[in-house]
Structure formats: C-alpha cells, structure tokens
C-alpha cells in the first residue's frame, strides 16, 4: 500500500503518523475491526477466558467498539482511546495462565488476519502491554489496599 492510496477514513490527531503506520504495516480501521471481532469471538469460546469476561461484560457491542478504538490508538497512533486499562484489570481474578492464553489467541488471530508486518506490529505491542498489566495485577493481588500502579 502506498501513502497515495491510503484513504484516511479514521479519526486521528496525527494524520501523517497514522498514514505512515498504515502504509508500513498494512493495518487499517477495517483490518483492526476484523481482528477485534474475531479475537473476542475466540475469547468467548475459550474455556479459560470466557468466565472472566462473562462476569464483567454486559454489553459486548460497547466493549468491541472500545477495543477497536484502543487498537487504533495503539497500532496507528490515532490518539482516540482515553480509557484506563490498568484499573480495569487489577480487580480481575487473573494470573499468568490467563495472560498466556490471551496472548496465544491474539497471536494466532493477528497472524491470520493481518499482513506479516501488521501482525508483528500488533503482537509486539500486545506482549508489552500484557507484561505491564500482568505486573500491575500481581502487585494489586499481593497488596490489595495499595492504589494500582499506572504503566500508561
Ligand atoms: C488475562 C488476560 C485478560 C483478561 C482476562 C482481560 C479481561 C478484560 C475485561 C473483563 C475487561 C472489561 C473490564 C470492565 O469493563 O469492567 C477488559 C477491558 C480491557 N482490556 Fe483486557 N483482559 C486481558 C488482557 C488484556 C490485554 C493483554 C490488553 C491489551 C493488550 C487488554 C486491553 C483491555 C482494554 C483496553 C480494556 C478496556 C479498558 C477500559 O477502557 O475500560 N486486556 N479486559
């Protein structure tokens, strides 16, 4: 994909950076939407992860939309996600096995949905964020009265 052929049908605070990332990775709003929907389709069919999500998510349409915005911000630097992932995860009853499973599903769906460069771009970021979230969760579980540590 050349920059001339990328149409910017995506809200972004940094259009030049977003276009450059789209060209470099082959990622686009449509690809990220497809990835998010396929990924959470697998999560909802997964014996390890499904119970954690089922206990928290009451409106899947809202969660999926939030996650498309999140991944657009992370992967294409659109600046559109304004949530706080750390406090969303620190109260969850999750451990290394949940993170391993989450990453295994994410890697498989990313490779299946994206170009090799796009998959690598997403997987690197997912692994980094999962690591930070895991440390925050462990820290909250070992000292539940301490405020959550913020990693981003
Ligand atoms: C052990 C693996 C994980 C589990 C079980 C899990 C579960 C959840 C649940 C249940 C929520 C909804 C929280 C709520 O609305 O009350 C959530 C939100 C979210 N998760 Fe995860 N998650 C996991 C890993 C990750 C990873 C690795 C990432 C990023 C790479 C991530 C990104 C997010 C984001 C951005 C939100 C929305 C936070 C917000 O803005 O409210 N999660 N997750």
What does this structure look like?
It comes from Phaeovulum veldkampii DSM 11550. The protein is 66% helix and 0% strand. It has 152 residues and is an all-alpha fold. The protein has a single domain, classed as Globin-like (Orthogonal Bundle), CATH 1.10.490.
Core attributes:
152 residues; mainly alpha; Globin-like; 7 helices; 0% strand; globular; disordered N terminus; binds protoporphyrin IX containing FE
- How many domains would you count in the coordinates? 1
Specify the biggest β-sheet: none
Poorly predicted ranges: 1-5
The total of helices stands at 7
Bound molecules: protoporphyrin IX containing FE
The percent range for strand residues is: under 5%
Structural class: mainly alpha
The CATH architecture can be named as: Orthogonal Bundle
Q: H/E order of the elements? A: HHHHHHH
Computed over alpha carbons, the radius of gyration is 16 Å
- How widely separated are the two ends? 31 Å
Chain-wise SSE layout:
Elements: H1 15-25, H2 29-43, H3 50-56, H4 60-76, H5 85-89, H6 96-113, H7 116-142
Helix pairs in contact: 2-4, 2-6, 6-7
The structure holds protoporphyrin IX containing FE.
InterPro entries: Globin-like_sf, Globin/Proto, Hemoglobin_trunc
Keywords: Heme, Iron, Metal-binding, Transport
GO molecular function, one term: metal ion binding
């Amino acid at each position: 994909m050349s920059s001339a052929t990328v149409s910017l049908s995506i809200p972004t605070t940094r259009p030049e950076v977003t276009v450059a990332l789209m060209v470099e990775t082959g990622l686009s709003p449509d690809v990220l939407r497809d990835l998010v929907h396929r990924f959470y389709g697998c999560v909802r069919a997964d014996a390890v992860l499904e119970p954690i999500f089922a206990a928290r998510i009451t409106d899947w349409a809202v969660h999926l939309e939030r996650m498309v915005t999140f991944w657009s911000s992370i992967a294409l630097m659109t600046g559109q996600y304004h949530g706080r992932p750390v406090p969303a995860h620190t109260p969850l009853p999750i451990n290394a096995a949940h993170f391993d499973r989450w990453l295994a599903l994410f890697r498989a769906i990313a490779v299946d949905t994206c170009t090799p460069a796009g998959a690598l771009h997403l997987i690197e970021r997912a692994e980094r964020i999962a690591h930070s979230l895991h440390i925050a969760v462990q820290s909250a579980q070992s000292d539940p009265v301490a405020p959550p540590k913020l990693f981003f």
